Amino acid sequence: MARISYLSYTAREFALDEDFQQWVLQPDVRNVFWERWLQQHPEKEAVIREARQLVQGIGFRSYSLTAGEKEQLWEAVWNGLEEDTVQPQTTVRKTWWRRSWKYAAALLIGACLSGGFWFWKGGNKPVLLSTYTRLGEVKTFLLPDSSAVTLNADSKLLYAEQPGRHREVWLDGEAFFHVKHTRNDAKFVVHTYDKIDVEVLGTQFNVNSSGKEIVVVLQQGSIKLDIGDKGSNHPTEMYLHPGEMLRYNKQDGDFSKSSVNAGKFTSWHTGRLMMEDYTLADAAAFMQQVFGKTVIVKDTQLLKYKVSGSMPLIYNADTMLVQLQKVFRMQFNQKGDEVWIQKK
Length: 344
Known about the structure:
By secondary structure, this protein is α+β, with helices and mostly antiparallel strands. It is built from 9 helices and 20 strands. Helix 5 (67-81) runs antiparallel to helix 6 (92-112) and helix 8 runs antiparallel to helix 9 (317-328).
């Protein structure tokens, strides 16, 4: 049987190839083709390495719920997915509660799983999967629609895809999305639990809901934001273009749009920390989000101290503290989950 020419393949295309998946997932079964192909094309080694990581990042697991619990969970999510069939004038509060059901379902699933990733599809029900990361952990994986997602530390994600219809994601934490455009122009919508919906067709963007604000940064393509307005109970629509950022305050609902260097906010998914006017306060927020460390600074003026540059991201709290200590030229003293900072 003739083999496919893989020379033009991207890492994602390799990861979707069944023969390649078998080679990665069954290392005890020798696959001469792939061994020879890699020897003949050493220039593709980096792409193959990335593709292997994508495939290995997907571990399929089963529910640990009872049959009754599964049915209740499915009803909650499935009913929520039908929210667009209700008349607009009656959907405002119902939609919010249905989305709350979905978010609760994501948390419930995460609590009931022994592993970090599961996948299920049956009958006319949607494709449904969930994954999460722990503190100091990052995962990159492919969704069933071939979109790639990198999930930052201490984050949760729930994905649902209705056959022939739109794709939806519920995110708690931070993720970088590379969304795959579909032939039928299926919507791809990212929900956060604070009334922010990000709707896209094919694009690259970052969503961070881990702190006091929700921050959406667009790197490529275009996205539409639906922002809940507490005063009028009607969402505000806003479009972002590449290099633009939305900040939404969870407490009072205020939001603003600005132009930024998108790489500063998205470079983490490539393994680098971009520090453009990077303050000690930014470093403190990073250590809290990624490692659960609380930074304590008696002289609050130090929090305004800025540096610029870049450095590799290493998901080890001690190593990152050493690097940040050198960058800011300050003394970092760690006591459990607290980090005390002072001038040298």
